[in-house]
Write a structure and sequence with these properties.
By secondary structure, the protein is α+β, with helices and mostly antiparallel strands. It has 2 domains: 75 residues, no CATH class; 132 residues, 2-Layer Sandwich (Beta Polymerase, domain 2). It is built from 7 helices and 5 strands; from the N terminus they run ααααβαβαβββα. The radius of gyration is 20 Å and the shape is globular.
Length: 213
């Protein structure tokens, strides 16, 4: 009897954990969609606080929040999200043509299909000399902000890289400048900790052609 009682308690605890993780993931997805939060950690913490859930064991994985975000878009943004995504992919293609000398690769929400009105066009550019990109922006009178970003190259190692931010057609452009040798080694995704999916200009052109057929 005691064993059955313990098993029942364990099953109940597992179900409760799943339910709470789901609640936090759904709320985090709503916050990301409506408030433009793009930091998964911040979104899940804020969602948990909103729901009054503070146990670490109930915090969902980033992949769970990503799945909830896509579900939220299907349910509440079916009429607008596809157009927003298409618009950003077209802007991404123009940007990739402009930065062709830097072997651009599209990454993030605009590539994976989850982009919305808050999403930036995120490109990885490649050069061993940051001044070449700065000169290109300056020569074309493109005002930009410069930041830095840590990216994980393996599960144990991370490094800091320069980021350049500006807008085109009222859409944010986010450029991360990486050394040339990282053309062959994509940083790890914050969603599933696997190498980021990246698309060349040719791959994006094919993706856009598929949508217009």
């Amino acid at each position: 009897m005691r064993r059955h009682a313990r098993e029942h308690e364990q099953d109940h605890g597992t179900l409760r954990t799943q339910q709470q993780r789901r609640r936090i993931a759904v709320e985090a997805a709503r916050l990301m969609s409506e408030e433009g939060i793009r930091d998964f950690h911040l979104a899940k913490r804020k969602a948990a606080a909103h729901l009054g859930i503070f146990a670490e064991t109930y915090l969902p994985k980033n992949s769970e929040i990503d799945a909830a975000l896509r579900e939220h878009q299907r349910l509440f943004q079916a009429d607008t999200q596809p157009q927003l995504l298409q618009q950003r992919r077209e802007v991404a293609l123009e940007a990739m043509r402009f930065f062709a000398a830097f072997e651009p690769r599209l990454v993030g929400a605009v590539l994976d299909g989850s982009a919305d009105e808050h999403s930036a066009v995120c490109l990885h550019l490649f050069s061993d000399d940051p001044r070449t990109l700065q000169n290109l922006l300056d020569e074309n009178h493109i005002p930009y902000d410069e930041e830095s970003r840590f990216l994980r190259l393996t599960r144990e190692d991370a490094d800091e890289f320069p980021v350049y931010l500006f807008s085109a057609d009222e859409i944010a452009i986010d450029l991360t400048l990486l050394p040339l040798d990282l053309l062959r080694q994509a940083p790890l995704s914050r969603i599933d900790e696997k190498p980021m999916k990246r698309a060349s200009r040719g791959a994006l052109e094919l993706l856009l052609a598929e949508k217009t057929d």
